[in-house]
Amino acid sequence: MQDFEIRSAREGDEGVVLALLRELAAYEKLLDRFRVTAEIVKRDYLSERPLIFCDLAIARNEEALGLASWHWIYGSFAAAPKLYLADLFVRPEARSRGAGKALIAHLARRALAHGANAVEWEVLDWNKPSIAFYDRLGASPIKGWIGYSLAGEALERLATR
Fold it and tell me: What is the pTM assigned to this prediction?
């Protein structure tokens, strides 16, 4: 039996979401890119029309164990939505409690309830513990696709053409 619940982040959770995202950025060695503030969490995650959604794993003592942030994408050829998992993080001390699996299972149920045909995400190639965890869930890498990003000066240069 779980000693925690999975629930949607709500007003008042800005600090918790911010702290968990910062811990994830530190774990991924990406703190130099971290720009999230409590105001951004309130605006983008917790507003009436959020740009991204967030679910939390919360222990009975109200301690936050982890989070999953996600948004909808659309598979044009499949003509079906997909749930895109942007961030999954469980605090190291809570990783043996099943919170990560519970968060992904929660998203899988949400995806199916909305007619989605997949939950997709990315993982850093060096993150062997997470890759092993995803493999144990039955997930598999998307073969044949390479992720791209147009950002910074290249984005600005192209936009001004």
Answer: 0.93
